[in-house]
Structure formats: structure tokens, C-alpha cells
Amino acid sequence: MAGVVMTSAIVFLTVFQCPTFAYHLQRLSLIIFISVNNNSCKIQLYELRFGPTGEVMGELIQDFQLEQAIGLNVNRTAFLMTEEIGRRFAAHHYPLSAQDFGILFRLFKQGAMTQVEIATLLMRDKTTITRRIDGLVKKGLVERTPDADDRRYFRIELTGEGNKALEVMIPLVRDFQQEVLMDIPDAEKAITIKTLKHISDKLIKIR
User: Fold this and answer.
1) Which of 41-45, 64-68, 98-102, 121-125 is predicted with the least confidence, judged by mean pLDDT?
2) Domains of the chain: residue spans and CATH
């Protein structure tokens, strides 16, 4: 056992101290570091990474905390909020999703749009938006009308029933937001929004 541990430790140290191994290490992803202390054995996994000048770096995999990942927390919060607002819509006789509300609200704010424009604005794929709009058409909340400039396209616009629905839904969304955020200081909310916008802008640039 001592020989194996000694060999592993030497290999580990050699790898991280000798840059000539960099080319060959590109085919590896993990290094196992085994240490023995007072008759106990400790095994640690390191992920290989390469710095900007090609130097080999190690990152202890066990140190990664998924619970601290921004993406995980944003997705979890978004799921919980959209699920709850959907229940509140249904309780007021509008069985619609948060995504349906997003479409209706954009049409209310910006007027008639094509499905492509809606998909681009909401950053959703065209198939998903088409399916959501089909549902809203069946509920009588929006309608498709031929585009006056290009008859190959349709423009989506709110109906009278769609405007009535928003008169109920907008206050529900506003009150829900206030309820969820009421005990968070304005300064913290502003920082959170600024940070998320910064991350969003950066992700848009690298798409």
C-alpha cells in the first residue's frame, strides 16, 4: 500500500510541476491523489485545467458546490414563481401559464407582432411559441390576422377578451411580486437585477 501511495503522490506532484507533460495531459480529465496519515487513507479527485499560457492547474472536484451555482438557483426560483402564478391565474378563472401571460403582456405593450417577433422577444423557439399562441387563439384571447405588407405572414394581436384577461392578470402578477420581495431591501433587489442582466447580456454575446 505504501508503494502505491508513494507512486501516486510522485505522479501527482510531477504532473503539476512539469509543464512538459501538458500536451499528453490534454487526454486526461482526472487525477487521483492518495495520502496516508496515521493509518488512515484519504483519496481526492482533481480535475485538470489549463491556464492561458498552457500551464497545468488542478481543481479539487469535491470543493464544487452545485447549490451555490447561479444557474441552479435562478432556474429553481423561476420554476417556483411560474408554478405559483399559474395557480393564481387559475384561481381567477384564467388557466394560463406564466409564458402565456408573457405573450399577452408583450402584445399589450407593443401591439400586434408576428410569431417570429414574439419568439425572438421572449427568447423561445418558434415551435413552443406557435403552440402557446394556438392555445391562446382557442381561448379567444388573441387572433391571427394576415400581414398587410406580406400576406405570407400573420400578425398576432389581442382580442377584447385578451385585454379583459390582462386587467385581472397584471394586478395578480404585480401583487405576487410585491409579496415575494417585500422583505428584501431595495438595494439588494437592484443589485440582483443588475447582476442577472450582466450575466444575461454576456450569455447573449457568446451564443
Assistant:
1) 41-45
2) 2-64 (no CATH), 68-205 (1.10.10.10)
Q: Encode burial over 127-161: b for 16+ CB neighbours within 10 A, e otherwise.
A: eebeebbebbeebebbbbeeeeeeeeebbbebbee
48 φ, ψ (degrees, to nearest 5): -80, 135
For the whole model, what pTM was predicted?
0.67
Q: Which of 66, 63, 56, 69 is nearest to 26 (CA)?
A: 56
Residue of 182, 167, 101 whose CA lies nearest to 136: 101
pLDDT of residue 2: 42
CA atoms within a 13 Å half-sphere pointing along the CA-CB vector of 148: 2
Supply the angle between the helices 126-138 and 115-122 in degrees, to the nearest 10. 120
User: What's the chain's length in residues?
Assistant: 207
